[in-house]
Amino acid sequence: MRRLKIQKLFFYLILFGMTIIYLGPFLFSVSISFNADKDVLTWPIKLIPEEWTLAHYQSVWRDLPFGQWLVNSVLITSIQTVSNVFFSALAGFAFARLRFPGKNIIFSMLLASLMIPGIILLVPKFIVLNEFRLINTYGGLILPGLVSVVNIFLMKQFFETIPKDLEEAALIDGCSYFRIFWQIFLPVSKPALAAVAIYTFQGSWNEFMWPVIVSVTNDMFTLPVGMAFLKNEFSVQWPLLMAGTILISLPTIAIFLIFQRYFVQGVASAGLKE
Amino acid sequence: MADVLLKNIQKRYDKDVLAVKGASVEIKDKEFVVLVGPSGCGKSTLLRMIAGLEEITAGELYIDDQLVNDLSPKDRDIAMVFQNYALYPHMTVYENMAFGLKLRKYKKSDIKQRVQEAADILGLREYLDRKPKAMSGGQRQRVAIGRALVRQPKVFLFDEPLSNLDAKLRVQMRMEIKKLHQRLQATMIYVTHDQVEAMTMGDKIVVLKDGEIQQVDSPMNLYHEPENKFVAGFIGSPASNFLHGKITQDTELAFQSKHCTISIPTDTSMGKRLNNHVNERVILGFRPEYLYDKAHEADKRLSIDLVAIIDVIEPIGSESYVYFHFADMPSDSFCFRSNSDIHYVPGQKLKLGIDLNRLRFFDEKTERRIK
Ligand SMILES: Nc1ncnc2c1ncn2[C@@H]1O[C@H](COP(=O)(O)OP(=O)(O)OP(=O)(O)O)[C@@H](O)[C@H]1O
Ligand SMILES: [Mg+2]
After folding, report:
1. In chain A, what percentage of residues exceed pLDDT 90?
2. Residue B140 C-alpha, separation from nearest chain A C-alpha, in angstroms
3. pTM for the whole structure
4. How far apart are alpha carbons B263 and B248 in whole angstroms?
5. Which domains are seen in chain A, by residue range?
6. How far is the CA of B44 from the centre of ligand 1 (A)?
7. How confident is the model at residue B1 (pLDDT cuts 50, 70, 90)?
8. Where does B4-234 sit in CATH, by number?
9. Largest Cα span, chain A
C-alpha cells in the first residue's frame, strides 16, 4: 500500500516536471506578450506582469502586415488540408482495395521517398518551381504540400482494417468502386480522416522552411515567416514577436481542444489498430 | 426466381491452388440448395463465384439460361448474406435495407413499402432507426437478411449466416430462414460447414471435399445411400463407424476384420453384390443407430453377436451415445445409440448386433460405395 503511494507520488512528480518543461516556455511567451516593454528583460523574470498591456497585440495588427499574412496562411493551410484529406483518402483506397498493375512497385517507391530527408529535396524542388515561374506565388507555396506520402500510408493502413465483406456487400447492392469509396469507406473512416486533417493543418500552419524559401516579398509571407522577420540584424522585438506567436498558436490549440477525442482516437486507430 | 446451372466450374487462386476442381450442379427454380463440407473445401469460393465476387477460372455459370460468367455482381440479380453480417455501420437499419434499392433508382414510396414489408416479416419494425452497433448478433443477421429480401432477387446466397450466433438462436434462425424460403418461393443457395444445418434446411445438398463435389442429393438419400466413405462419415451425428476388412467366402459369404467377422446373408441385395468382391479389401460402414443391444432388440434382422466393452456413455436426454471397443482392441473406439432408459456402466460387456439391411460397403482403395 505504502509503496504504491510512493510510486504514485514519484510518477506524478515526473509528470509535473515534464509539464513544466513543455509548458514553461509557452507560459513565458504569454507573459512577455502582456508585459510592458520596460519589464520584458528584467531579472528575476516577472511571470505575472506588474503592468498588463495589450499594446503589443495592437501593434501586431497595426504595425505589421499581419492581416495579409493571416490571409496567406489561412489560404494555404485550408487548401492543403482539404486536398490532403481528399487525395490521401483516394490514393489510400486505391492502394488498399483496388487491383491494378504496378501497384506494389508504385507503393514501394512512395515509401522509399520517405527515406530521403526533406531538406535534401528543397533545392531540386526550388529549381523545378523556378522553371515553372512559381517562385513567390501562391502556386509555389501550395502545390508541393497538396498531398503527402505519410497521409496516404495512414489512410491505406486504415482502409485495410475495414472488412472486405463490407465492400462486397456494397458491390452486390450495386455500388461502383467510387461509390464504395464515397458512401461506405469515407463515412466509416472519420477518425482517420480527422487525424489526417489535424496533422496536415498543424504541419501546414506551422510550416516554416518551405515558405521562407519560396516567398520573396513581404506580401507573400505566411505568419511564421513574417514573425521570423521581426528578428532583424539589429534587434529582436521580443514582445511583438511573442504576441504574434501566441496569436498564431491559437487556432492549433483551439483545434486540439475541440477535436481532442478524434485526435487520440485517430492516432490509435490509424496507427496501431490490430 | 430462377434456375442456376453450374457447368464444370473451376477456380484457381494461385498457380497451384485449385480451390474448386470442376463443379457441375443443376439448381432448379425455388430450390433450397445447401453447399456443405469441411473447412477449406471450397464452398465459399463456389458461392462467391456464383455471386460474381470471384472470377470463374473455367466453366460456365448460367442464371436463368443466361451465361453470367462475365457479369458483375450487381447485374446478376442476386443478393448475398454474409457470415459477419457486413452491415453498413454508419447507416440505420432502414438505410441499410434501402441502400440497394436507392442505387437501383426505385421510387421513394416503393422503397419505403418494401422495407416496411421486410421489417414486418423479420420482426424489425421497432429497430428501423437504430444503427447496427446498437443491435444483437441475431438482430443484425436479420437486418442482413432483410437487405437481401427487399431486393427480391432471383437468387439468394448465404455464406454461413448463422455461425456467429449462439446454438439456440441458430436453431431458431434456421427455422425462420426455412420458413422464409417457403413463403418467398425463391431460389436459395446456402453454405454451411454444419451437416445438421445442411440436413435440416436443404431440399438438395451438395457435399464438397477438397474442391470436389462428392455427392449431390436429397438429405435422406445422402444419409441412407452415401456415394462414398467421406459422405457416409460426414453426414450424420455421431459419425458413422467404419471397419476395415476383407470379403471372404469360406463356408459362407462374410466380412472379416480384425475386430469381428460378420456373415452376410446371400439372399439380400447386398449379399448378391458382394459376391463379385470376394477377397477384396473393403470398408464396412454402419451408423450408430443401426447397432442394437441384443438384450433389448429381438425383431430386427441382426448380425451375429459382437462382444463389446463400454468405454464412455454420453446421455443427451432423449437417447445416449455409448462408446465402446471390441474385446482386446481398446485403441479403436466405436459408437452406438441407445435408448436412454437402459442403464449402462463403463466396463460393462454386452452383445451387439448390426442391422443387416443397413450395411454399407466401400472399396478400400477408391473409398467408393460398392453397389
Ligand atoms: N483469395 C485466396 N487466395 C488464395 N487461396 C484462397 C483464397 N481464398 C481461398 N483460398 C483457398 O481456397 C480453398 C477454399 O477456400 P474457401 O474459402 O472456399 O473454403 P470454405 O469451404 O469456405 O471454408 P470455411 O468453411 O473455412 O469457410 C482454401 O484452401 C483456401 O486456402
Ligand atoms: Mg467459407
Report:
1. 51
2. 14
3. 0.84
4. 9
5. 54-270 (1.10.3720.10)
6. 7
7. low
8. 3.40.50.300
9. 73
